[in-house]
Amino acid sequence: MKKQTIDSKPAGPKPWYDPRVRSLFFQILAIAAVFWAGWTLVENTLSNMESRGISTGFGFLDETAGFGIIMSLVPYDSTMSYGRTFWVGLTNTLLVSAMGIIAATLLGFIIGVARLSSNWLVAKVSLFYIEVIRNIPLLLQIFFWYFAVLGALPSPRQSIEVGGTMFLNNRGLYVPEPLTQDGFGLVWGALLFAIAAVVGIRTWAKKRQLATGQIFPTFKVSVAILVVLPVLAYFIAGSPLEWDVPALKGFNFGGGITIIPELAALWLALSLYTASFIAEIVRSGILSVSKGQTEASKALGLPNGLTLRLVVIPQAMRVIIPPLTSQYLNLAKNSSLATAIGYPDLVAVFMGTTLNQTGQAVEVVAITMAVYLTISLSISLLMNIYNRAVAIKER
Amino acid sequence: MNKTKSIVLGMALASGAFAASGAMAATTLENVKEKGHLQCGVTSGLPGFSQPDEKGNWTGIDVDTCRAVAAAIFGDAKAVEFTPLTAKERFTALQSGEIDMLSRNTTWTLTRDASLGLNFAGVNYYDGQGFLINKDIGVDDATQLDGATVCIQSGTTTELNLSDYFRAKGMEFKPIVFDTSEQTVQGFSAGRCDVLTSDRSQLAALRSKLADPESAKILPNTISKEPLGPVVRQGDDQWFNIVKWVLSVQINAEELGVTSANADDMLKSDNPNIQRLLGTDGDMGAKLGLPADFGHKVVKMVGNYGEMYDRNVGPDTPLGLDRGINALWTEGGIMYAPPVR
Ligand SMILES: N[C@@H](CCC(=O)N[C@@H](CS)C(=O)NCC(=O)O)C(=O)O
User: Any idea where the domains of chain A sit in the sequence?
Assistant: First the structure.
């Protein structure tokens, strides 16, 4: 039989009846409307500011800042520019956020697990912690820690001393600063080598366990390698490290590294506060894993610890990660309460002093908002990547 | 709070144009008359300058500066509402129209005058920056402060002055920057810093707030010029003139010996300067858009500059500040106002 070819496609709907064309049209329309609104907003702001004699533009970022900042991770002094104050503030924000996230996570997991403990006292103490900390405004907690810490510590002349090298007073904790000398590269090299070795041993041990069932004490061996190799290298290189020990001169201690009370109080408050929320998230995550899993694991003879680590937590993680992410975001944003106690974060330094000295409110606020958005999006992105890695893999 | 203020400014500026770009906006004077009161930005509480009592009555030299303007417009020194502002919030509040005038111990500087869309309408107190220090430290001059930790309030001119001073003297310091004056004092009394720095006029007041005022003293040094005065939005010259001349009237009244007590009698004076000042001749009020007797109302209800000074910050008040350079130019000071003519 001869096949009949159809040349012409069946007549489709008219373009304005075609759902795809229609939806495309309305999407373009929506985007155009958003852009128009945004553009008008910017335009009007600029022209209004001009008519009111308020200066605009980003030129101020190159001008000399002229004010001092108590703590900086990047080199800074008052002869540098306003642009530099931005980096000082940003790194201080990132520092306290990162420290807070790490501490809150550790503490939150411990308390969350303790909350489910079969030990009555442990469970109740965790419950008490969660309920108290969660329900007191964070700002109050920051003030509390700040003034409690300040009040408890002595003045510089009566510092608490640890072995003549570390000092604690109401101006901060002073610790010796390690100054690496020539030859310290060898220690770094040894450390890198040790890390590579540990990775190698772990893969090998896993393979062997899968093949033969034999368990290798990976953890103990790893720690040994990580410690022994660099220490050995350190002595071979002739101890290439000197310490800058803080000493009392004039008003206060100089030299060494200072951990200011503002950082300590903010870190403590942020970590303790967020940990109480994380604990609840961890608890609900663990409870979401069905009891059968634990029972099965016990039936296989796994002890409690291993059951938790190998069976429950990995499954609980899938429930924990999304709300955990939003706690991390909260912590990063809450760090802006720093201004209240004088910790020089981005909001205090840049949106505070820089804004006030330059008067460029709209620009400075826009930059600051963009930064917080970027920090938040980065945290979300990383957590999403991690989430994908722990999510159920369909096999 | 500061965040919101700044964002509100942005939105106010942006939405303004949506509503009525180009249309003739009402003048500040018309707005104020319409509202029936003057909205005045002050501190959240600074003895002698602007401070509320338990009943919410505000007193202080900055408060009186506002009251004088209200007396000029409404013939009623009580037709004022006060908005407490931190140092950081003040300019945004004025720019966005939340307040009609700012009278909050604000230093007149070029940057503020020229780039914030604001105008300074005179000086009601000539101040300078100084230091409050713990007596135990045993320092009696600012040049011995190398390495000191200093508590400051954010959003003030003091931060920059402090850096400049220490840099010029080749000294180091560690700044601890707080948001409000209360926290600054708390930080100082908790021992977080060796010295507290602010405008000298305020050091005495802050010292009196300490648990043990005797434990601290004020250093003799003055490290900057801080001419403090009322501020208005740029672009409404009539309003600018009103605030400027109400203050000038008070200073001129002191020079001419007109006080709140004798203001009524002085209406009969045949001194032409007094006649113009009190509105019995010359119709100065009309030139400003004010009632003819505005000068009489200002002096009668609020007093002349000297009365305002003595009542709030003078030697017989808790602040106990001598007139010093704030005395009239005729008496060895630099307080001088252009003539009402
Ligand atoms: N005159 C300076 C400082 C003004 C200022 O804000 N001073 C602080 C004390 S140093 C104050 O009045 N605080 C009271 C408050 O925040 O309510 C300026 O204009 O920047």
Answer: 82-158+265-390
The region of weakest confidence among A149-163, A267-281, B3-17, B207-221 is B3-17
CATH of span A82-158+265-390: 1.10.3720.10
User: How would residue B24 be classed by pLDDT, with cut points 50, 70 and 90?
Assistant: low
Q: Of B145, B127, B128, B126, whose CA–CA distance to B137 is shortest? A: B145
A57 in B contact zone (CB under 8 Å): no
Q: Which fold has domain B2-126+227-331?
A: D-Maltodextrin-Binding Protein; domain 2 (3.40.190)
Would you call B177 and A342 a contact, using CB atoms and an 8 Å cutoff?
yes
A114 at the B interface (CB within 8 A)?
no
Chain A residues touching B156 at Cβ < 8 A: 356
Compute chain A's Rg from CA coordinates. 29
Pairwise CA distance, residues A329 & B182, whole Å: 31
B132 C-alpha vs ligand 1 centroid, how far in Å? 15
What are the extents of the domains in chain B?
Answer: 2-126+227-331, 129-223
What is d(CA A232, CA A378) in angstroms, rounded to the nearest whole number?
39
Give the bridge partners for A242, in sequence order: A179
Ligand 1 centroid distance, CA of B261 (Å): 33
Q: A-contacting residues of B 16-45, CB under 8 Å? A: 16-18, 21
Distance (Å, whole) CA A89 – CA B48: 35
Chain A CB contacts of B167 under 8 Å are 78-79
Q: Which fold has domain B129-223?
A: D-Maltodextrin-Binding Protein; domain 2 (3.40.190)
